[in-house]
């Protein structure tokens, strides 16, 4: 989708369809055609959030969408409204859609609203049909189906909207870049495990490194894990015939960061298929475990977005990619393995594999000089029980950094709820025969226990663990209802931006 911006009124653009948001108590602009006022007067068009009405005037279609009260119009509500409009626009066979940026006071600044409209539209336009055979229908059937995507999106801002040409262009371009990165992460998530192997994910990271001058990428296999004494990660990988991939990405900005800007570390779990290993999962919906690499996908694509935005902050990323399968070589319940920092781990349940992969990856991020670390992982089913698909679970050893991460999610609509990480939880992960137990038999505080385990591998570095098991797919948002959501890409980019 080609995305651009203009300052003249939306009606002056060459788009075939114009979207106008209706805010409670705010009249239509003077440039609006009288047909729109007629829809309002008749009650067909309403200010109620997400309500839709369509008019034809001045040789264009006009979609009127209710935005509610101005002081309630956040960026997230703008994303939802954009997705609702996108659905109607595609039904109308729109090729070029122009959004008129609201010119009334709202809960968000004009640049933030403009970016949210772009994000909501691009995310709603996403489809994953790579593995569907192409239709060989007749020309009439193809014509009846109509377009499934928009060709162009234009954001128009009248002078009274309070944003200049350059600021609008920057906001729109940045939002389009980030939204495209989210959709790229969704592509990775949606690919089946026989296609997106750990090696394939490593190849995608290498491709990005080759495209972006400021982004370096290294991918290591099982021999690399052995050389780094990553016994926890290697134990998970040994049951599969597929080679694991330790993916290290390093972004060094061309513009030096300001003094005091920390080196940000991003760590992602990327189990490209998780059967549970010897502790085999139930068969029902096991296919969804192709999504167990969602944290890694978000980290890979967030790194690409950060580099393409040229943000002045140094960022290192570590992604641990592997399959977790049962075989004669697979790690067994009761085995004891040693992580790269020397801590020994009793493997009481091979289906608690993500924390073992992350353990070594967190140690690696610390060794690379990360001064703030956030990890993303589809770690526990318990977080879905606790928070559903609305919030990710956040746990941290540092209040200031936790507030920054949670705040980045609030800004992007990728919200998280902080759960406690009390020292008493440490007792639950103590091992009987080794230092740590990867899956305590006492089924208490499952999500927090996962974080308590991981806290042993970050030392004193401020760290946040985000359990995204409930938000990584089937999110239920208007712009990402089913399948992969790409959750975390926008949050991580905003987190990096918050230091700039």
Can you walk through the features of this model?
- This protein is of the alpha/beta class and 500 residues long.
- The chain is elongated, with a radius of gyration of 24 Å.
- The chain has two domains: 177 residues, Leucine Aminopeptidase, subunit E, domain 1 (3-Layer(aba) Sandwich), CATH 3.40.220; 302 residues, Zn peptidases (Aminopeptidase).
Question: Which descriptors apply to this entry?
Answer:
500 residues, alpha/beta, Leucine Aminopeptidase, subunit E, domain 1, Aminopeptidase, 8-stranded mixed beta sheet, 6-stranded mixed beta sheet, 17 strands, 34% helix
How would you summarize what this structure contains?
The chain has 500 residues and is an alpha/beta fold.
Strand-helix topology:
Layout: E1 2-6, E2 17-23, H1 34-42, E3 52-57, E4 60-68, H2 75-91, E5 96-100, H3 110-124, H4 139-145, E6 152-156, H5 165-190, H6 198-211, E7 215-220, H7 222-227, H8 231-237, E8 245-251, E9 264-274, H9 294-308, E10 315-324, E11 335-338, E12 344-347, H10 354-367, E13 372-377, H11 382-387, E14 392-396, H12 399-412, E15 416-418, E16 436-437, H13 446-454, E17 463-467, H14 489-497
Parallel strand pairs: 1-6, 2-4, 2-5, 5-6, 9-10, 9-13, 12-16, 13-17, 14-15
Antiparallel strand pairs: 3-4, 7-8, 8-10, 11-12, 14-17
Helix pairs in contact: 2-3, 3-5, 5-9, 6-9, 8-10, 9-14, 10-13, 12-14
Sheet-strand content, in percent, reads: 15-25%
Q: Low-confidence spans: pLDDT under 50, at least 5 residues?
A: none
Number of helices, counting only DSSP H or I runs of 4 residues or more: 14
- Structural class given helices, strands, pairing? alpha/beta
Number of domains: 2
User: Could you give the distance between the termini?
Assistant: 29 Å
Tell me the CATH topology of the largest domain.
Aminopeptidase
Average per-residue pLDDT, rounded, comes to 95
User: Could you say what the CATH architecture of the largest domain is?
Assistant: 3-Layer(aba) Sandwich
How is the main sheet built? 8 strands, mixed
Shape: elongated
Given this structure, which CATH class of the largest domain is correct?
Alpha Beta
Question: Strand tally, please?
Answer: 17
Write out the strand line-up for the largest beta sheet, numbering strands in chain order: 7-8-10-9-13-17-14-15
The value of Rg in angstroms is 24 Å
